[in-house]
Amino acid sequence: MHLKEVADKATEKAFLEVNVLMNRSNPAYIRALDNEVNEVFDPSKNKYYKYGTTKRWILLNDAGEPIGRIAAFTNDKYINKGTDFVTGGIGFFDCINDQAAANQLFDMAKQWLQEQGAEAMDGPINFGDRDKWWG
């Protein structure tokens, strides 16, 4: 398994597809609109980039197939909401049923948030308005 940062069109597409793959056997699953998810990570469309930043990763198996994803967020308007310490956010977590895979995703998000000065992680949350992608 290895992590890959979402940094181009191919990894953006894979980030979207992980959610579809993880829910393929769920008869009640309704796919989110790709453009709505992509807008969360587009500085020209998401006003919260004035207050923070994001990073996304996909987890690939040894055959190069996506098996997980996660996003991490900083938000200066949110960092101390109800706490005395800087708090980062995580969301868009999807993963196969494999604890090592999940740990790899959460550890990467944790590491990046610590590099941004966060002392805690909150999630699942969205980098944006609270009407989508929470919980």
Number of helices: 3
Largest sheet: 5 strands, mixed
Molecular shape: globular
Task: Provide the residue-averaged pLDDT.
Answer: 90
Gyration radius, rounded: 15 Å
Cα end-to-end separation: 27 Å
Write a structural description:
The chain is built from three helices and five strands. 28% of the residues lie in helices and 26% in strands. The model has no long low-confidence stretch (mean pLDDT 90). A five-stranded mixed sheet has the order 1-2-3-4-5, sandwiched between helices. The chain is an alpha+beta fold and 135 residues long. Helix 3 links the parallel strand 4 and strand 5. The longest helix has 17 residues. The chain starts with a strand and ends in a 13-residue tail after the last strand.
